[in-house]
Each structure stands twice: as C-alpha cells, then as structure tokens.
C-alpha cells in the first residue's frame, strides 16, 4: 500500500478521446480512495477529423505546437513546472511527442519516477523500422511500464525490461454500459430506426470506427459488393468520420442498400448495432473488438499484419472470425457467417462472455495496482 501521506500522480495525454473518459474518471476515483491525487494534462487536436474529443472538468488542457519535419508530424506540449511535484509522471509512448523527452530528462534530474503507457512498438510499422528502433532505445529508461496487453508485455521483456516492473492493463472500454444499453432497446425502437434508415428485413453488416487508410474502406466496399451479389437482401450501415469519410459518403450515395450515418459516439452507436448481424472491419482492428463483444455483433476481420494489440482478444472461430487477407476470402467469410444458423449464435455467446472479462473496471483496477506498486518501489536510476 502507498504511504499515509497524500501523493500525486500525473498523466500526460496527447488529447482526450471520448472512449478514455470513463477510464480516467474511474482511475481518479480509485486512486482517491488510496489518498493519491490524479492529475491529467492533455492537449487539443486542431485537426480532429474523427470528431471524438472530450473534456474533463478536473483535467488541465495544455497548449501545444504541431510541426512537420521531413514529412513527420511532431508535437510539443507545454507542461507546467508543477508537474515535477508529482510522485509519478506517466507518459504516452509516442515518438512524435518531443516534450516527453524533456519531461523524462528533468524528472530524472529531480528524482521523480516516470512510467510509459503504450504498445511497446508501432504495430502499424515494420518491426525493424528506424522509428521502432528509437522506441526500443528510450522505452527502457523509466521506472515502470503500463502495457496495453500481454502481447505488449512480451515485447517489453525482449527489450529487455524487467518483468517485475510491468503492469498489463488489458486496454478496455466501458463494455458493461454498452451491454446494459443494448439490453434496454425495445423492439419498437428497433422498428423505428429500421424505418428511418429504410432498412429491409435481410441481414445487416455494420462498420463503426474511424475512417482513415489503415481501416481499408475500399477493401470493405468491394467485399460487400460480393456479399450483396450472393445475398441480395444484405445491407450495410457505415458509422464514423475521418479523412476517408468521403469514400463512405460516395459509396452510400449510389447504393440504396448502404446507409452512412456519420459519426456516432458512446451510447449513440448502440441502436445501430441492435439491428446488425456482423461487424465488418477488414483493416486495422483495435478496441473495436470490444464493441463487438459488448454489443453482441461478432467482428469479422482479416490477417492484416498491422492490427493494434487488442487483436489478441479475438479468437478466430470462437468469438469472431479472421479470414485470409484478400477480398474474395473476406467476402466468403461474411457470407458463410450470415448463412450458417449455428455459427453466429456461437460467436455471439462467446463474445458476450468475453465482454465481462475486458472491462474498464478491470483496466482501472490493473492500472491503479501498478501505480501503487511503482510509488512504493525503490527509485531506479
């Protein structure tokens, strides 16, 4: 346990996405019961095409400068000097946040503990890239690591980083709230939404997430054309925003079986999932896998080589499907799932069970336990 003297932990975040609010609120409450004050510093993303930013009344918005050097987007955040009064400073493991290097350097000089929170490597880049080489170089120079998943922890051990200074947090969202809201939707509400969307009675696929190149919307659209040719009643709901949202708009504009509704966040997206049979995401999968678990809509993805670490939650053939990484194979997986009267219920049941495992409450508990350990651990230099 932490000492009786009230202590302070600071987390520095690039910007505050909607899906992190529940976690930070829960962590603040949990640490408060341990006489630890949580401070959150975050910037604002002026080019937030995803439209998913939030604010917290107790958080501190900091100014930041973004600039481009040799084609790379870099960022510097201006943190108050009071941050070094913290007992622990937790930084995101992102190469492009230059201010993190300054914070880590000054924290070391002032004997303030530091920790990193992240993926361990950039899963969307080659393992031997210069950027990932640099990540490995600086990522071991902290007192503690908060790893997104067990896979990330294994990567850290190979740096090497001591196992007894790694906390696996199991990155999550508020799956229980999603499940509760889904259960509250009535048949009348479903019929009304179906009428508003002009949906038929056939099977429905849904895409819900940010829209940028790694999500591979053109791949998805080509596959859905094949599905539609085989299953004429098939329809598609598209939810999201981002630099590729125009692709979704254009695709829906010329097809009456495609329904693009723009961005929907938190509980706003739940009614659309209540009408859907499969969650389609052939490109990068991250926390979306937990949306699929909580909302009872099995996700179908591919063996895309650049998934985020949360892909480890997905077990092919048990709580979702992972096809070969080509359009015909993906389309066939969707067709097979829709046509098999036993497969979708089986996947849905297992996914719902796993939604109870990967919860924001569990993530808060894991993270808080790690904070208590590092605060009490000897200072490593």
Describe what this molecule looks like in 3D.
The chain has helices spanning 21-32, 98-109, 130-138, 150-157, 175-184, 187-197, 217-230, 245-253, 270-274, 288-294, 327-339, 343-355, 360-376, and strands at 7-15, 36-43, 60-61, 64-69, 72-77, 88-92, 113-118, 144-147, 166-168, 204-208, 235-239, 258-260, 278-280, 299-302, 320-323. By secondary structure, it is of the alpha/beta class. The strands form 3 sheets. The chain has a 7-stranded parallel sheet with strand order 3-2-1-6-7-8-9. Strands 12-11-10-13-14-15 form a 6-stranded parallel sheet, with helices on both faces. Strand 8 (144-147), helix 4 (150-157) and strand 9 form a beta-alpha-beta unit. The longest helix has 17 residues, at 360-376. The radius of gyration is 22 Å and the shape is elongated. The two termini are 22 Å apart. The mean pLDDT is 93.
Distinctive features:
381 residues; Rossmann fold; six-stranded parallel beta sheet; elongated
Radius of gyration: 22 Å
Q: End-to-end span in angstroms? A: 22 Å
Report the helical percentage: 25-40%
Quote the beta fraction: 15-25%
The overall average pLDDT, rounded, is: 93
């Amino acid at each position: 346990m932490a000492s009786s003297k009230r202590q302070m932990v600071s987390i520095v975040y690039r910007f505050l996405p909607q899906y992190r609010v529940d976690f930070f609120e829960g962590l603040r409450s949990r640490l408060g019961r341990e006489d630890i004050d949580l401070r959150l510093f975050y910037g604002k993303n002026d080019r937030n095409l995803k439209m998913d930013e939030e604010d917290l009344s107790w958080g501190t918005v900091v100014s930041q400068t973004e600039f481009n050097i040799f084609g790379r987007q870099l960022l510097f955040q201006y943190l108050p000097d009071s941050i070094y009064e913290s007992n622990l400073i937790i930084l995101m493991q992102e190469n492009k946040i230059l201010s993190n290097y300054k914070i880590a350097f000054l924290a070391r000089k002032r004997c303030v503990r530091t920790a990193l929170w992240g993926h361990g490597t950039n899963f969307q880049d080659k393992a031997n890239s210069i950027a990932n080489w640099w990540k490995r170089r600086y990522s071991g120079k902290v007192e503690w690591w908060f790893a997104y998943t067990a896979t990330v922890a294994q990567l850290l051990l190979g740096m090497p980083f001591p196992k007894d200074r790694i906390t696996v947090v199991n990155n999550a969202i508020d799956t229980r709230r999603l499940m509760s809201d889904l259960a509250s939707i009535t048949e009348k509400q479903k019929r009304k939404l179906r009428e508003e969307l002009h949906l038929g009675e056939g099977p429905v696929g849904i895409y819900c997430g940010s829209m940028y190149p790694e999500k591979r919307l053109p791949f998805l659209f080509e596959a859905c054309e094949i599905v539609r040719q085989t299953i004429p009643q098939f329809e598609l709901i598209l939810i999201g925003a981002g630099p590729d949202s125009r692709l979704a708009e254009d695709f829906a504009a010329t097809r009456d079986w495609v329904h693009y509704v723009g961005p929907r966040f938190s509980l706003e997206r739940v009614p659309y999932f209540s009408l859907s049979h499969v969650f389609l995401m052939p490109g990068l999968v991250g926390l979306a896998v937990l949306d699929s678990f909580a909302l009872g809509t099995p996700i179908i993805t591919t063996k895309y080589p650049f998934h985020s670490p949360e892909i480890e939650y997905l077990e092919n053939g048990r709580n979702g499907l992972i096809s070969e990484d080509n359009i015909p194979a993906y389309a066939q997986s969707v067709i097979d799932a829709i046509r098999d009267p036993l497969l979708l219920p089986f996947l849905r049941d297992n996914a719902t069970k796993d939604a109870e495992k990967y919860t924001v409450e569990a993530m808060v508990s894991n993270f808080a336990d790690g904070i208590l350990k590092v605060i009490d651990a000897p200072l490593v230099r």
